[in-house]
Amino acid sequence: MEYKRKVDKGRIPTCKIMGVNIAAINMEWLVQYLEKNLSEIKGDYICVSNVHTTVTSYEDAAYCAIQNSGLMAIPDGGPLSTVGRKRGHKNMERTTGPSLMGEIFEISAEKGYRHYFYGSKEETLEVLYQKLTENYPGIQIAGMYSPPFRPLTEEEDKAVIERINETKPDFVWVGLGAPKQEKWMAAHQGKIDGLMLGVGAGFDYYAENIKRAPMWMQKHNLEWVYRLVQDPKRLFKRYWSTNTKFIWNAMMRGK
């Protein structure tokens, strides 16, 4: 069944980078948009896009369609907003998943927002619950679920949808890592009652399992360097491959 959107997606400014319609926005615009339209955009999803997901989309048409079929793909990666500004989108700024989470958490008690967390490990979710309730007094955590690594059966998936929807969430934060989280959100578009956001390592940041880069590094698009130092074995090959492809295609060829 095709998902019928209640808002005009065409009103969200975008910049096409390597086939992905990246939202040409900044954090202030994004938070205001979510506040104003939350009731109409539940059931939809937001991709948190970076160099890795953009290069993957360029090489995988099905994944590119998923990135473009949500409500928007926000520029988590600094190079995306840099390219956007060079192409004339002067107000386009980096809007990271963890930063967006923090912005929403800050206003949650006042707004009465309810949050559901889908993904990560049980131990991480337990610590995340503790840290969020300590750091954001009055935050409403509607539920948390750590799914198994294997694909769910159809019956299990139906049970998960019911489990999430019973909690009446406003935001459903999805921490499965790319591309798994985007595929999960696309498969559940219109089935989950809250707004789904794929935030990757966001759960680990707020559980304080990993530290974010200092603000000066974030502002200068160097957070990837900080992450590389933290996890060189896993990230070196990915960064070397995707960063060079991005520079060649997006920055030099204008794709």
Short summary:
With 255 residues, the chain is of the alpha/beta class. It has helices at residues 27-41, 51-59, 61-69, 78-86, 97-111, 122-135, 154-166, 180-187, 202-206, 215-219, 223-230, 232-252; strands spanning 14-17, 20-23, 45-49, 72-75, 114-119, 140-145, 171-175, 195-198.
The N- to C-terminal Cα distance equals: 33 Å
**Spatial ordering of strands, largest sheet:** 4-3-8-7-5-6
Major beta sheet summary: 6 strands, parallel
Based on Cα principal axes, name the global outline.
globular
Structural classification:
alpha/beta
Cα gyration radius (Å): 17 Å
Tally of alpha and pi helices: 12
Low-pLDDT segments, ≥5 res:
none
Q: Provide the succession of SSEs.
A: EEHEHHEHHEHEHEHEHHHH
* Average pLDDT level: 93
Tell me the helix content: 40-55%
Tally the beta strands: 8
Q: Could you tell me the strand content as a percent range?
A: 5-15%
